[in-house]
Specification:
Layout: E1 2-3, H1 11-15, E2 21-24, E3 27-30, H2 36-56, E4 60-62, E5 68-69, E6 80-81, E7 85-88, E8 106-110, H3 118-134, E9 138-143, E10 148-152, E11 157-160, E12 165-167, E13 176-178, H4 179-182
């Protein structure tokens, strides 16, 4: 859903939107809340990312709802991301109350019921391209229905199934996640 605001919208306008939204091409794009399964999976991944950050004594893990501000805008016009889970390996001090003014090192997008079909695939591929243009090293496409995790990097794609340990190389060296355990309710 696109919010009608004076064009072009700004980060200040985006900060006033309740719920999940991103700034793309000067427009605020709101997203529907996700259901139980996608939300549970995203939360579980964020918990595992937090454990990794603590064990490495570096970086920060984020659950759904955090905003990353990109300036200048990307080629597509995108100015922000709000992944379902993410990790930022940055030594810089982060503005605690505003958007994070950089791109995540690793981003996780968990599919909801509207994330299937040709147009959804195109939109997700476009968003991944934006992540990589902004400097993200790896993106997971988590599919609760197929019970797969697809690791995307700028140069490759790897599909992990329930019999696998998924990784997020090169973004999170040594970190793995048991795919089967992720999809157990």
């Amino acid at each position: 859903m696109i919010v009608s605001l004076p064009f072009p919208a700004t980060f200040e306008d985006l900060m006033k939107v309740e719920g999940k939204a991103e700034l793309i091409g000067g427009r605020i794009v709101e997203f529907m809340a996700s259901g139980d399964l996608p939300s549970t999976i995203a939360f579980e991944i964020a918990v595992e990312l937090r454990s990794y950050a603590k064990s490495q004594r570096r970086g920060r893990a984020y659950a759904d709802g955090v905003g990353f501000a990109i300036d200048p805008p990307l080629t597509s016009g995108r100015q922000s991301f709000s992944p379902d889970a993410s990790y930022l390996d940055s030594p810089e001090r982060i503005q605690e109350m505003g958007f994070i003014e950089c791109t995540p090192t690793f981003a996780v997008e968990v599919r909801s019921e509207n994330d299937y079909g040709r147009s959804a695939e195109t939109a997700m591929a476009d968003k991944r391209a934006d992540y990589f243009e902004a400097g993200t090293l790896a993106v997971w496409d988590v599919d609760p229905i197929a019970q797969t995790i697809t690791l995307h990097t700028p140069a490759s794609e790897t599909v992990f199934r329930p019999s696998d340990l998924a990784h997020a190389e090169p973004a999170l060296p040594g970190w793995t996640l048991d795919v089967a355990a992720l999809f157990v309710n």
